[in-house]
Amino acid sequence: MKQNKRFQTGLEQFREIDEASVEKIIDELKDVSPELGNYIIEYAYGDIYSRKELDLKSKEIAIIAALTALGNAQPQLKFHINAGLNIGLSETEIKEIILLMSVYAGFPAALNGTAILKKVIKERNVK
Amino acid sequence: MKQNKRFQTGLEQFREIDEASVEKIIDELKDVSPELGNYIIEYAYGDIYSRKELDLKSKEIAIIAALTALGNAQPQLKFHINAGLNIGLSETEIKEIILLMSVYAGFPAALNGTAILKKVIKERNVK
Amino acid sequence: MKQNKRFQTGLEQFREIDEASVEKIIDELKDVSPELGNYIIEYAYGDIYSRKELDLKSKEIAIIAALTALGNAQPQLKFHINAGLNIGLSETEIKEIILLMSVYAGFPAALNGTAILKKVIKERNVK
Amino acid sequence: MKQNKRFQTGLEQFREIDEASVEKIIDELKDVSPELGNYIIEYAYGDIYSRKELDLKSKEIAIIAALTALGNAQPQLKFHINAGLNIGLSETEIKEIILLMSVYAGFPAALNGTAILKKVIKERNVK
Amino acid sequence: MKQNKRFQTGLEQFREIDEASVEKIIDELKDVSPELGNYIIEYAYGDIYSRKELDLKSKEIAIIAALTALGNAQPQLKFHINAGLNIGLSETEIKEIILLMSVYAGFPAALNGTAILKKVIKERNVK
Amino acid sequence: MKQNKRFQTGLEQFREIDEASVEKIIDELKDVSPELGNYIIEYAYGDIYSRKELDLKSKEIAIIAALTALGNAQPQLKFHINAGLNIGLSETEIKEIILLMSVYAGFPAALNGTAILKKVIKERNVK
Questions:
Q1: CA of E79: which chain D residue's CA is closest?
Q2: Least Cα separation, residue E36 to chain D (angstroms)
Q3: Fewest CB atoms within 10 Å of the CB: C31, D85, E17, E78?
Q4: How far does the CA of residue B39 sit from the closest CA of chain D (Å)?
Q5: Domain B1-53 listed as CATH 1.10.10.10
Q6: F69 shares contact with chain E (CB less than 8 Å)
Q7: ipTM of predicted complex
Q8: Architecture of E1-52 per CATH?
């Protein structure tokens, strides 16, 4: 994997929001699409997520809202609920973001997002 | 239209984020579906948007992100970009929320969201 | 265009729900994709819509609900609101179907569906 | 949980379509988002579903069609296929609604909706 | 099941891309919706997929791209990744189609598509 | 705008598929979100589209299929139908890709995609 500056920036950014998952995600992709793993680090985290114009909380609010509304990206919603909790959003704030989506994407989206929040809270309490 | 407490709360909340649009939206719906106009005030604004656990900026970040990602609710995205600017989000912050959606919903979603932001900025500068 | 039995059935079925539009739709497609025009008649109307297990009202309720919820097929939603009115759904019933979608697909979907209903009612009143 | 009139109406309406699930759904949400549970009863069932302008069958036809077409709300589709059977839709009618969605949302949506119908029928036959 | 010419064409076409699955899919549908099974063979494969204007590779590229982007039809995406490999697309080509979708539908769509590709490759290697 | 190697690669790639639009798109974004313009060149074209594992035709088949199926990115679908024609896809091939989407995303998606194809053909014939 190319270890350029964007990659380094992305890796640090990724680790800031979820230290535990970086190796796992890169590892899962390394046989089937190392390129996708690389672009996630370089583009998603190195270029975009690491931008400074929005703080971390605002970014995770935006991402959790969007993934709840789309309703077809449950592993990523789970990841970002964890990331949101890691960087300082409270369970209450995340519950409220998902509840707000009942208005903009309907109750099924809000219910399925809430089920993922419930699972994340349970898993974090076990650890 | 029923003038109950939830309706009053919703109306005040709605006016707080976009004073100019309340009458217009209720008026547009009054012949075809006054019920929908009523529930927007009572449920969307009176019950949900007026909740205090998230501040106004966080709510508009969530809504702008979700509507950009969904990509099929352009009049509402336009409304909430205006609302976001009204309640204190900067043009830069909204640009960044939409840019972030290139990662989570793709470049077409980000491009079409940006086109609406451009239109809103232009209209506000004319006034 | 092949004038087989399925095509004949489809054409009659299509005419039953919107006599005025059949020629227009076939005509619009005849240069760019007569095949699509053909399959709409043969499959969508000849095979599926003409089935007898659901009555016409139930079919249009299902279609109007689905297109409102999807939110990305406005010309087809407009067509089926007209078709629904043609085959006996009342304006009130269609308003209620769209209102119900506020629960299952969110208020933007319900608002944009209602805007199309309003346009259809206006156009029919002019004629 | 607030036991206001809308809540009572919603609870009765919810019980009418699926007596067995009410406690379960409220219970699942009570730790993570009792607010969402509350708004489902008050708004989704108390305000909207309990309206009288559409009969129960028409409502479930609309909901089953919409959730099949959206394709990202499988627990809710399962719930409403059960509810549809509870309030008098036949298996054949539900099969036909889902089949109709092959035209409006494609065969994958129809196939995945049919798989849920199959699972519901199997579970109800076991009981 | 009606054994007309379209059905025969569809059956042969279906077998050409995935010999092993035809019986299984028809069998799974035969109790709950034999009609859907029938229309998949007649319309999806007999009318559309068997058309000669696009070669098999182009069709599977289009289908894999669309199902990855939609993100709500995972069983069908799995089927068509297998079909794509059966008719001569390489693992690399499919990986690239899915990677390309990061641009048009976002990284969650690309990640979830890649996870299905990984599962398909693993299953084929076991056999 | 940063003129790094990825940007240069992206610019050349973009020009290869639609010489006439590059300046226009960068120009439209330069006031509102030059960053988005930059990332489209660097990531979408410089990193991804310029990869060599798929030929240009395969890429445009994938993109046209995905955007037709999503149904909420009409300006981008129009752009890529033009790009597809520019790099050697025939009108017939594009018509067939869109027709194929009737199976995977339904007839409304296929109809709305065909309407854009019709518009593109008309505009190109005028020039």
A1: D108
A2: 6
A3: C31
A4: 9
A5: no
A6: yes
A7: 0.96
A8: Up-down Bundle (1.20)
